[in-house]
Amino acid sequence: MKKLLMTLSVLVMMVLAACGSSEEEAGASSGDGEDKEKSKETVMVEHELGTTEVEKNPENVVVFDFGALDTLDALGIEADGVAKSSTLPDYLSKYEEDDYENVGSLKEPDFEKINSMDPGLIVISGRQSEAYEDLSDIAPTVYVGMDNENYMESFEKNTQTLARIFGKTEEADQKVSALKKDIEQIKEDMPEDKTGLVTLATGGKVSAYGPGSRFGLVHDVFGVPAADKEIEASTHGMSVTFEYIAEQDPDYLFIIDRDKVVSGEGQAKELYDNDLVNQTDAKKVYLDPAVWYLSGGGLRSFEKMAEEVSAGISE
Length: 315
Fold this sequence. Notes:
It is found in: Cell membrane. By secondary structure, the protein is of the alpha/beta class. Helices cover 45% and strands 17% of the residues. The protein has helices at 2-39, 66-74, 111-117, 132-138, 151-165, 169-189, 217-220, 242-248, 258-262, 268-271, 275-278, 289-294, 299-313; strands spanning 42-47, 50-55, 61-63, 81-82, 101-102, 121-124, 141-143, 196-202, 205-209, 238-240, 252-257, 283-287. A 5-stranded parallel beta sheet has the order 5-4-3-6-7, sandwiched between helices. Strands 10-9-8-11-12 form a 5-stranded mixed beta sheet, with helices on both faces. It has a two-stranded antiparallel sheet with strand order 1-2.
């Protein structure tokens, strides 16, 4: 009888121990599930091409827009894939290293390479807009193209979008606030009776840009009055001659040398050194083409733009 009771007692203890172990495992499993759910928190991003659901802090990030690459880098976020087949600004040259995947050029994404990366996020802008659907089939794709007619609002929206995805809103807000103070100072320093003209030189030809254009922030954001308010806003600017520049006679002639970043050999200084331009009172202000032409709309590029315009209008 005693042996029977002892045997029953042992069996009961074994059953209870098994149940406890199962409950602990179930609890642990449940906890793991909760942790996974937390890690999969998402952000809904509304942009010009649609609405995209993105997992917060995504891995294997592919970036085509150099302004967005600039902003992410400034916030301490490194992209994993970059359009390295296109010229990168010098201050983002680290992305040319082998540690970062080459996902094609700004105009031709390498879909096979991108797909092999299994990205958690793809960031694009205007030049890749036609590939939006194809890229969206690979991974969540967000469009961050700039609205030149509403540059500041567009810049802030894009910055906040990227910051929300990576949990960097506080850092981004601080940087944007500091930039706004710099902009206000430039407006205060800008003489009301002086005007400016923004031009781009490439292949021996010159184009002018006015308010609302690709480089219109010189007027729209920094407050430099336009020498010619009738320039039609367009991506490639209005083709002009040096006679035109002499007629406008701006106080500040802003010059972007596209050839310097495309071919590595700038010619703008020689091109603008002629009798027609030299007879004007214009102060020639050479802007960094890597910043203005390649990576506009980024946190660092915007800061650099503000610095250059501020220095340009100072006497």
